[in-house]
Amino acid sequence: MFEGIALALLVCLILAWVSKKVRFPPIPAYMFAGLLLGAGGLGIVGESDVSDFLAEAGLLFLLFTMGLELKPGEIYGQGRSFLVSGTVDLAINILTGYAVAVVVGFDVMDAVVIACAFYISSSAMAVASLIENRKLAAPESETILWIMVFEDIMLLLIIVALSSESKSPAAVIATATVLIAGFFALCYLFRKTVRGFLERYEDLGLLFTFSIVLAAGGVAIALDIPSTLVAIAIGSAMSVTKPEILEKHARPFRDIFLVIFFVFFGISVDLSSGFPVIPVILLSLAAVATKLISSLVIGKATHGNYISGIEIWSETTARGEFSLAIATYGSPLVLGTIAVMVLITSTIGGLTGKYSDKIKRYVKKKSGKGRLPG
């Protein structure tokens, strides 16, 4: 049990070091390591209750930190650009994903799961790429981050829709709404107390953050609602306190546990019995193409030119952690299909993010002017 986790982390440490050297996101490497070490590869590392817990914790801490960025006041202030960017991204990608999945042979329910995974980009890769490639000051960076926020909100609805097997969607929504409203009310009422506590007790703040996230997951399980939904909600509710301190405390847990999430997801996927190669390739290429189309439309609408759309596309092409979380709601065939799609798109996304300036220069040269025609 522990030997497998230790071996997986050692392999990931080496891969992370190599990724840093070549300035390439390590997420595809983590998944590939899992596929190699798991039952479909060498078969030397298997899943366990401990690895499942740590992987789930990694996803919860990621969603919690994303929730800290969901400040209702700021979202409202973005107005038209937020809604236009998010709606275009949603409509083009989720509809195309569903259509392509049906065309290549998946049934309706599997196609719905695939479409949701097809739509949502990897926030972890997008943010890491913006930092690693020193693009945070670029005018498109804010648009990219707000697209990620819009996708996070949509993720809430997707999780509710896909996780309503044991209860009706209405019951899940009602229970979650009451719980989330309670979170927001408590955080607002005690915001000054929590702020003072976090500012005064640095060491206890770490334990506080760890406890809050895991407690939120435990409450969700007890009430039979998605723990991923609750993690985002508690993060958003806590954003009225000291989100920068909470993010700082959550980051170490997120970074370590999330590595375990990626590698053990790869271990859980067994591709040795085969998977639909051509449909997966078609899905992956379509995923790259539709993000390009939606990004060009967003670039034109929000920045006035298509070159900005290419920059947005370069950082949103990769699918990752959220697509993998959605994949767990599908059949084993869907699980393998989405896993390979994530591997392909995250690899392509890593390259587009790294070489976006060269891509834009090439497009400008070919178009003969500072922006694409139209």
Automatic annotation (TrEMBL):
Record-annotated membrane-spanning stretches: 30-46, 53-70, 82-104, 111-131, 143-163, 170-191, 211-235, 256-289, 329-351
Superkingdom field: Archaea
Coiled-coil intervals: none
BP GO annotations: proton transmembrane transport
GO annotations of cellular component type: membrane
Main location as per UniProt: membrane
All copies of domain Cation/H+ exchanger transmembrane, residue ranges: 11-352
Membrane topology qualifier: Multi-pass membrane protein
Family: Belongs to the monovalent cation:proton antiporter 2 (CPA2) transporter (TC 2.A.37) family.
Name of the protein described by the UniProt record: Sodium/hydrogen exchanger
